[in-house]
Amino acid sequence: MAARFSELVIDSRDPEALAAWWAEVLGYGVLGRDEDGAVEIGPEAGFGGPAPTLVFAPVSDPSPGKPRLHLDLNATDRDQDAELRRLLDLGATPADVGQTGEESWHVLADPEGNPFCLLRSRLDPL
């Protein structure tokens, strides 16, 4: 038997705003809010479905330095260039994490500066 990736918790200065931004990017909806201010978003199937949920946990001062992990995204209904334009229009910004410029992916940051990558290949929607 193996473990399964079910959710990812992300520290956030403004969980409501960052959850709303990622929900728009991923086509997710809000699944719940905790009394401590955490916001969980996910696909229609909810927690335990085919894709992991994201939980944005409130912190007053996120850990400094380079994050130890990041999200990789793939477009589902358009090519990489069109998805890049959509993400930039939503407020993503280009990020430099030391890439050469020859990569087949784009490195971006969400509104709180968390890096993520937009990969070239397109995936089927869930």
UniProtKB/TrEMBL annotation:
Signal peptide: none annotated. PROSITE patterns: VOC (PS51819). Residues 4-121 form the VOC domain. It holds the Pfam family Glyoxalase_6. InterPro entries: Glyas_Bleomycin-R_OHBP_Dase, Glyoxalase_6, VOC_core. This is VOC family protein. It comes from Geodermatophilus maliterrae.
